Amino acid sequence: MVILLQNIILIIRIGVMVLGGKCFFIGHRDAPFEIYDVLCDVIEQHISEFGVTEFYVGNHGSFDFMAGKVVGVCKKKLELPAYFDGSYFPEGQEMVPYRVAIPRLNRYMIAHSDFVIAYVKNITGGAYVSLEYAEKLQKQGKLHVWKLI
Length: 149
Fold this sequence. Notes:
Blueprint: E1 9-13, E2 21-27, H1 36-48, E3 52-57, H2 62-77, E4 86-88, H3 98-111, E5 115-119, H4 126-139, E6 144-147
Parallel strand pairs: 2-3, 2-5, 5-6
Antiparallel strand pairs: 1-3, 1-4
């Protein structure tokens, strides 16, 4: 059995106990570095105001890299140990064909999160489809979507 390591979601916990909300990131792999400061402010707000203690970050491109970096910086600022706490690979994901693995994993993570932070500028592609799904769940009151401008 081959496990596609690029489809693993990284888990970064902010609190010692996992009692707060869960946040997942959706964004383009070519997101510009100019959004870094805004992303930092939004993540800090999710920690301080919304009580988010778990962040789930993919590993495809610049948006995921920036999100993971900012959460790591926030952990350091709060003087909490470790930058990266582990990885998550939902059961059955290894059986998914490569071409649909990322969209399926995104859908799963959105459905199991309380918050989504998104940077989506293009109206096509996987990030856009994932954002549409998250907004549908938001209308049903199942999660909160925060879009970066």
